[in-house]
Amino acid sequence: MKTYRYDQAKFNVSVTATGVFCVALLVTSALCLAGVIDVVPAPIAALLLMVCAYQVWNTFVAIANPQDVVIDDDTISFRAFGRSDTYRLADIESFSVREVGGDAKVYVRVNGGGLLRGRYWLQLLYMNDGKELFQWIEDFEYRLDPTSLKSRARRSSEQARAAKSAR
């Protein structure tokens, strides 16, 4: 079993503090819309309420920014705030990976993702052994769907590298 952990200090600032700030904005926006306080106009308060509700949901309910990724022979788990989403590798039907900024940040959707689970942003740059986790994620996506366009491009690239090094 291998645990990949988001650096605690960076997690506290970029995930937890952002979530708490959004909770405060959510409450303030709700109070503005209810007419209890008059800090911002109602249209702005409504927009803030929607954006902050989405962020709070993703942070504390859907754990879209997990602190830990735990991989063993049979499962992968995404964990944060005392909650864990665990998937048996054999039961995963789709595993979609989108790289943002190379291998620094990836968006992973497991079995299509959903409102409560299955959508994860992984800040690989700030996780222990982030490059190793990135490689595992890429390899798993490749094994799960070897006929995808992304898999074919990877194979082609590997063949070109091998041919170049053989020369």
Can you offer a commentary on this structure?
There is one protein chain. The chain is an alpha+beta fold. The protein is built from four helices and seven strands; from the N terminus they run βααββββββαα. It has helices at residues 8-34, 42-61, 130-144, 149-166, and strands spanning 2-5, 68-71, 75-80, 83-88, 95-100, 105-110, 119-122. A four-stranded antiparallel beta sheet has the order 1-2-3-4, with no helix packed on it. A three-stranded antiparallel beta sheet has the order 5-6-7, with helices on one face. A hairpin with a 4-residue loop joins β5 (95-100) and β6 (105-110). α1 (8-34) runs antiparallel to α2 (42-61). The longest helix is centred in the first third of the chain and has 27 residues, at 8-34. The radius of gyration is 20 Å and the shape is elongated. The mean pLDDT is 92.
State the gist of this model:
With about 170 residues, this protein is an alpha+beta fold.
List keywords for this structure.
four-stranded antiparallel sheet; 7 strands; alpha+beta; 167 residues; 22% strand
Distance between the termini: 40 Å
Strand content range: 15-25%
Number-wise, the strands total 7
Roughly what percent helix?
40-55%
Overall body shape: elongated
- The total count of helices amounts to 4
Strand order within the widest beta sheet: 1-2-3-4
Radius of gyration: 20 Å
